[in-house]
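I'd like us to work through together how a protein chain folds, taking it slowly. To get us started, please write out a protein record for me. Go ahead whenever you are ready, and we will take it from there:
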Amino acid sequence: MPDPRSFDLVVIGSGPGGYVAAIRAAQLGLRTAIVEKDELGGTCLNWGCIPTKAWIVSAHLLEQIRRAKDFGIEVGEPRVRWDWMLERKNKVVKQLTGGVRLLLQGRGIEIVRGTARFVSAGRVAVVPPAGNGVELATKHVLIATGAESWLPPGFALEGTRVITSREALDLPRQPRRMAVLGGGVVGSEFACFFAALGTKVTLIEMLPRLVLPEDDEVSQLLEREMKKRGIDVHLNTQVEDRRDGPASAGAAARAAAEPPAAGGGPPTIVLTLTGGQTIEVDTVLVATGRKPYTEGLGAAQAGVALGERGQVVVNDRLQSSLPNVYAIGDVTDMRQLAHFASAQGKAAAEIIAGYPAQTNWRAVPAATFTSPEIASVGLTERDAKAQGRNLKIGRFPLRAHGRNIADNETVGFVKLIGDAETDQLLGAHIIGAKASEIIHECALALAADLNVGDLARAIHAHPTVIETLGEAAEDADHRAIHLMRQEGKAARR
């Protein structure tokens, strides 16, 4: 290999953790390189957060058009154009990944394309897809390689028949019948999206609840709403057997409004579930979880300690077992959230540059873009009870709120959890329209150690959906103005 080039910091991976860390490091005066084997922006920008939300916006718009009559507007029956949706999604992705490139180049960060591998704690070899490799000498290394989909036994990627969320985003046509394996964030989001477009969706989850980390009441309402939208939900269920069924007789072609091909389409997939029930689908989307990605990195050989799942083990300063090697984001297996990776990336860069950094991760909000949306921060009710706390809980249903009634978005509620003795806000859980936007006031309140009473006393603009936070906070002390708590009925505002 050529003589090594020297840097203060080499970042491996350009996802929302890696590219943000590289930019912050460059802002602080560190000579920085970033290594990427695939596309700039990582999974989030290319096959995760951004493209899926571009599609979910389309699904929401389709649902609104179908409800146009409720708003006094007459329209014809809308038609899904899958090719147009693909084109729009790709345009959004291209714009944002191009923006990442400009940001990196504008800060003088060297972009090195290829697969990285540790030579030693201070040297990283990069092998490009074509051409000669290069070796980078560096004072510090930041591992930001993210995570990859985990496929259960008996399932392997198979064209358009067995896919993960990554392949789902480039399907040539909309599936007619789909089984989604896994009722976590990814599986639930894709189930809602495809069902909104008219795909017959069966959701299979081996655990007793959907989106397990969320509050129990939130999970229960999501399950009910999925079923109302025609999704066939199977909890406490596993796939006991999988076999090929008959040829799909042009199902894929029919979905594309084309004449069936001679001999029909590819064979269907027949799944046997717990209890003996069988279902026949055209596509299986596997969303059974993601595992930290360290394959081929050579981290362990260089002396970096890895956990049981292959994650890089770090301390509270994001430092691995090697003092000059740090790790952030999904590869640490702490919380698989893009914005958490970005926050860690900024902190790691500041620590490496010798500055104090924020490393208190108590108030990290999460958002799930199902129908309806879910957002949360802090402790769930069950977790708070497990700590032995005496709780005060405030709830406010969206069906009781004027703005939600005007918007025709009345499904869901706000739930605040506080300590009954100190009034400290412990957690917030929202399911309903715009939940992902409303949650941030609660995240700020948690980070600032505010009380439930502080949320109740805050003046919220009227009429806005965020007013429901104040109503829920008042309900925690039995003084909600627009909720008749004693009778269990809501007074419409």
About this structure: Confidence is low (pLDDT under 50) at residues 250-263, 487-493. The CA atoms of residues 86 and 170 lie 7 Å apart. The chain is about 30% helix and 25% strand. Residues 5-149+291-352 form a domain with the FAD/NAD(P)-binding domain fold (CATH 3.50.50.60).
